[in-house]
């Protein structure tokens, strides 16, 4: 199979670097363009980027030029790691020009005709693209990945929601510094500290979780009617968001039943053979002090959500802790998997 040409927008940032790492040897996609701001455009990747993740950029990527956003960008898929306001300008233009845009920006996530997808959770929401095509008349499309903390929450809850119906949950997050991009949170604020506020995060968790755990009815997305209370904290951890969850169900499972349900979960069949899909999207740890971000975030190339401490809750029904790699499964890896789903479902040819 000839590889599908891909552009990375925001290629120099924290998420852009993960895109480069995941796509450099990808069996289906080939990086043919890197796009940055005016600060970087015209320079090579090596000159313009400050690599902040483990390893090094591939040699051939280092020599590639960074294109400005207003250039005519080549490619068939655009992996977007742009800031929200920049995404608003450029992503619809690229979709109009025929690109399949796989975006990490929050900009279009909750538009009624834009799928916000985790393939193993709600891959069927891809059907919203029919509505998008009718409404917008684009030759291409936009598909989005959810907020990184939301990803760690709904991957842990989807198997339980499917089996026992979640009716309410409380989520308290401890979010890594890299979630704020580069240069991100100043050292003097982040070190030896916990910051109990992340702009817009709690609203995103509450709204996006309902959308992801919702269902498709008559070609439209219907949000799940779940009562959600989210509290977000920035923690002095480099990568990996930790979320403590208390969950109430319509049909209350025992902790052991919940553990078995989580371990068995594989998601829809269509996702099983996608090149970046982990064999089990949710990994359950049984040690009393796991999951931990440093020890669990990279499990299965950072593409799983690790859950532990599944136990009864005197306030709601069950308590558990979830860890997700914010920039891999919660961002670049999620978008690469979405693009693979688009190929498998025939939306990218
Ligand atoms: N970090 C995470 O864990 C995470 C998780 C989920 C979602 N997201 C979302 O993903 C997106 C990227 O986040 P990030 O953490 O990678 O941010 P970042 O490290 O700050 O990187 C931002 C990228 O956008 C580019 N950019 C900024 N202004 C631009 C402009 N006017 N024109 C063209 N390019 C521009 C930057 O290019 P230059 O270097 O050339 O200026 C850089 O490559 C954001 O929407 C964020 O909310 C991030």
SSE diagram, text form:
Blueprint: E1 4-9, H1 14-23, E2 29-36, H2 45-48, H3 59-62, E3 66-68, E4 77-80, H4 84-96, E5 100-103, H5 119-122, H6 128-136, E6 141-144, H7 148-164, E7 166-175, H8 187-190, H9 201-212, E8 215-217, E9 220-222, E10 227-234, E11 241-249, H10 255-264, E12 282-284, H11 293-296, H12 299-302, E13 305-312, E14 318-324, H13 328-344
Parallel strand pairs: 1-2, 1-4, 2-3, 4-5, 5-6, 7-10, 12-13
Antiparallel strand pairs: 7-11, 8-9, 11-14, 13-14
Helix pairs in contact: 1-13, 7-9
This protein binds NADP nicotinamide-adenine-dinucleotide phosphate.
Describe the structure concisely:
This protein is 32% helix and 23% strand.
Structure characterization notes:
With 349 residues, this protein is of the alpha/beta class. The chain has helices at residues 14-23, 45-48, 59-62, 84-96, 119-122, 128-136, 148-164, 187-190, 201-212, 255-264, 293-296, 299-302, 328-344, and strands at residues 4-9, 29-36, 66-68, 77-80, 100-103, 141-144, 166-175, 215-217, 220-222, 227-234, 241-249, 282-284, 305-312, 318-324. Strands 3-2-1-4-5-6 form a six-stranded parallel beta sheet, sandwiched between helices. Strands 10-7-11-14-13-12 form a six-stranded mixed beta sheet. Helix 7 (148-164) packs parallel to helix 9 (201-212). The mean pLDDT is 97. The chain binds NADP nicotinamide-adenine-dinucleotide phosphate (NAP). Residues 10-16, 36-37, 39-40, 69, 81-84, 86, 104-105, 148, 178-179, 181-182, 326-327, 330-331 line the site of NADP nicotinamide-adenine-dinucleotide phosphate.
